[in-house]
Amino acid sequence: MRVGARGWAGVALAVLPCALFLSFCVRIVPADAPAPPVAARQAAREEGGALLIPVEGVPSSALTDTFTQARASGARPHDAIDIMAARGRAVLAAADGHIEKLFWSEDGGRTVYERSPDGRRIYYYAHLDGYAPGLREGQAVRRGDRIATVGSTGNADPSAPHLHFAVHVMDRDEPWHGGRAINPYPLLAGER
């Protein structure tokens, strides 16, 4: 079959709008994409309100609400969400605050407890592979600062590294391990 000049022109007219749509409207981000540029992280800090997704390069579309799921033992609720990511991927501060506690636990493994500036929230990061160099208790952190790396320490499956992320509402004088768990998913996925 032979296609004439008119046939090729028709094909080009059909393909051109599709190509323009893809180049302007669709952004495909691989799972191992590098971190957003510093300017993008700065813009996220200035937005306020919702929390920054605390794993570098993970879009909100990749999040799953696992807050109410029972744990494998069935004895306790999850009270957090798991953000799947490659081991070693940067864990970022979800909001401004200060590092309240660096802690090792049997369940959570290597963990970070970050308290909000008003003292009313604790952000809990667990199953970490390692802390950012120089991270210490009492240190002020800004939304988007690198604080750790994703891992599978504690009771996490070694073949499924992830960040276990929880948010607890606190009284100002409550200890770092207290508070009431609230679902972080709506705060991370941009739902109000």
UniProtKB/TrEMBL annotation:
GO terms for molecular function: metal ion binding; metalloendopeptidase activity. Residues 77-170 form the M23ase beta-sheet core domain. One of its GO terms (biological process) is proteolysis. Pfam families: Peptidase_M23. Its cofactor is Zn(2+). Keywords: Hydrolase, Metal-binding, Metalloprotease, Protease, Zinc. It comes from the Bacteria. This is Peptidase M23. It comes from Sphingobium cloacae.
